[in-house]
């Protein structure tokens, strides 16, 4: 990874590009942080790989007004952006450079890249979320994908110092069963109300309607408690849902 970093030359796309990510595998809260940052930009685009989607190539998930595909094409994280950022363009593409070119064609004035620290061949500003871990090794013996390389400038944000997480419970019911498919679901524990059961699925898991109804019936629950990442995949299943809506509140100026 170090040789890869040293061998790359950053291409200047003549547009303001901000990458938000972290150096370790697993969830860190990138999506709500991108939403918090992008909300203050009037003419922006979000570009991400679209991990877990049942499609490949470049897709415009949302133009400046309308959502143009369903969640199977976009992937769950891209659909969150499409719902949470009503004025932003959202693009999924394995090739981030092609996504940037498409966003520029659509007339945006700034771009946010979701999880693109490793794209060292793109000139951008990097913002990283610090993830606390006792194991400081890189893959495969530790959680780090790569290091904050010497000579690589980045803004590192610390949870509780530079930002805080705020959770709103929407449509709460008396008996709720937690169902979620996010990385490191234990992150939810400090925000959870009392639940009948906790049901964890693999990150980006594609639920079936029957298995969710089975949990509801088994627990005799009034609703399933889900995150927004789960909600965008199952909102059309006609299942009673309660929502843990996570937001990031910035405590420092990142403009």
Strand content: 15-25%
Mean pLDDT: 94
Number of domains: 2
Radius of gyration: 19 Å
Distance between the termini: 30 Å
Give the CATH architecture of the largest domain: 3-Layer(aba) Sandwich
Number of continuous helical runs: 7
Q: What characteristic shape results from the CA principal axes? A: globular
Helices and strands: which structural class? alpha/beta
Low-pLDDT stretches: none
Describe this structure in words.
This protein is an alpha/beta fold and 255 residues long. It has 2 domains: 2-157, 3-Layer(aba) Sandwich (Rossmann fold); 168-244. 22% of the residues lie in helices and 25% in strands. It has 7 helices and 12 strands. It has helices at 2-7, 30-38, 71-74, 76-84, 96-105, 209-219, 228-234, and strands at residues 16-21, 44-48, 59-62, 89-92, 110-114, 125-129, 155-157, 163-170, 176-180, 198-200, 223-227, 241-250. The strands form 2 sheets. Strands 3-4-2-5-1-6-7 form a 7-stranded mixed beta sheet, sandwiched between helices. A 5-stranded mixed beta sheet has the order 8-12-11-9-10. Helix 4 crosses helix 7 (228-234). It is globular, with a radius of gyration of 19 Å. The model has no long low-confidence stretch (mean pLDDT 94).
């Amino acid at each position: 990874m170090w040789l890869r970093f040293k061998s790359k030359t950053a291409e200047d796309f003549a547009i303001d590009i901000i990458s938000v990510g972290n150096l370790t595998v697993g969830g860190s809260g990138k999506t709500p942080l991108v939403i918090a940052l992008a909300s203050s930009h009037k003419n922006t685009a979000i570009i991400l790989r679209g991990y877990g989607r049942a499609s490949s190539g470049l897709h415009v998930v949302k133009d400046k007004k309308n959502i143009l595909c369903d969640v199977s094409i976009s992937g769950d994280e891209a659909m969150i952006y499409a719902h949470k950022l009503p004025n932003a363009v959202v693009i999924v593409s394995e090739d981030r450079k092609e996504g940037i070119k498409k966003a520029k064609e659509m007339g945006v004035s700034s771009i946010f890249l979701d999880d693109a620290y490793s794209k060292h061949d793109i000139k951008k500003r990097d913002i990283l979320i610090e993830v606390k871990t006792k194991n400081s090794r890189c893959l495969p013996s530790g959680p780090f994908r790569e290091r904050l390389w010497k000579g690589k400038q980045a803004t590192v944000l610390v949870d509780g110092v530079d930002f805080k997480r705020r959770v709103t419970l929407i449509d709460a019911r008396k008996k709720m069963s937690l169902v979620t498919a996010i990385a490191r679901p234990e992150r939810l524990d400090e925000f959870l109300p009392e639940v009948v059961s906790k049901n964890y699925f693999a990150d980006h898991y594609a639920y079936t309607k029957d298995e969710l109804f089975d949990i509801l019936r088994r627990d005799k629950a009034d609703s399933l408690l889900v995150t927004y990442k789960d909600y965008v995949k199952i909102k059309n299943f006609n299942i009673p849902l309660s929502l843990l809506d996570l937001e990031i509140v910035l405590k420092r100026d990142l403009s």
